[in-house]
Design a protein that fits this description.
Layout lengths: L15 E5 L5 E4 L4 E4 L3 H4 L10 E3 L7 H5 L22 E3 L3 E5 L2 E9 L10 E9 L2 E5 L9 H7 L4 E6 L5 H11 L3 E6 L4 H14 L12 E3 L9 E2 L9
């Protein structure tokens, strides 16, 4: 995926809204469409708590399939393991590497892994790159290793990186990944199941990034292709859809 299409001027003032629903689940909403990433039932509940989207992407197999399947149905991914929340059943689902265009949204799934042994321990992962209203964002899923040069090339230049903190990555490795991608907007996602542990891991990550005091949390990130800051900026999001 290229840095900008020939029609990028059309998108300069189109707003993209990014919200966090807990764990690694985020929603990106723009004029061209709405994307939900890693909206597992074990994260957002069997009904999805009001989370809707045109496209849903899953970076890896459901971490808690026994919770997700529950008593009622839902649609399973081709591997039979990911069951969508009912609110996302109408969405177009992606869960593998490849290049896609859906509703004028360009998506590139890049093969990565959930460990540093090429998936031998924890299995494969897909980092999804979205081009939505001229904004380039990458959701790294549950990645567990630094990127190779080939992976960096496949991901391309991005404006926003949503990075898991408290999962497979140490704080040091997470900061290294941010440096590799060279994005100016960084959204840490606390993915540790224990909330206190997640906060500690985020604090360590901020320390590695040279941030002395955590930025104030905000309900959502609203950004346009033309409003991306020129310097590295960390965005702390409030979790939506609790309860």
């Amino acid at each position: 995926m290229g840095r900008r299409s020939p029609f990028s001027l059309v998108w300069q003032n189109r707003r993209v809204e990014i919200s966090w629903y807990g764990g690694g689940c985020v929603r990106l909403r723009g004029k061209e469409g709405t994307i939900a990433a890693d909206a597992y039932r074990s994260v957002v509940g069997p009904t999805g708590r009001g989370l809707t989207a045109d496209i849903v992407t899953y970076s890896h197999a459901d971490p808690h399939p026994e919770v997700s399947r529950g008593k009622r149905g839902g649609h399973a991914a081709p591997d039979g393991r990911v069951v969508r929340p009912t609110s996302l059943e109408p969405a177009f689902q992606l869960d593998g590497p490849g290049e896609y265009e859906i509703r004028h949204v360009l998506i590139n799934g890049v093969r990565t892994y959930r460990d540093d042994q090429k998936g031998a321990i924890a299995g494969p992962n897909v980092a999804f790159v979205y081009e939505l209203d001229g904004l380039h964002a990458v959701h790294l899923g549950d990645i567990g290793h630094p990127l190779t040069e080939g992976m960096i090339g496949e991901i391309g230049a991005v404006d926003v990186v949503c990075i898991p903190i408290g999962g497979r990555l140490t704080a040091v490795r997470a900061s290294e990944l941010v440096a590799q991608l060279d994005a100016n907007l960084v959204v840490p996602l606390a993915v540790a199941e224990d909330e206190a542990e997640g906060q500690q891991q985020v604090a360590r990550f901020l320390h590695e990034m040279g941030v002395g005091q955590a930025p104030a949390t905000q309900a959502r990130l609203v950004v346009t292709a033309s409003s991306v800051p020129q310097e590295l900026t960390l965005i702390m999001l409030e979790q939506r859809g609790r309860g």
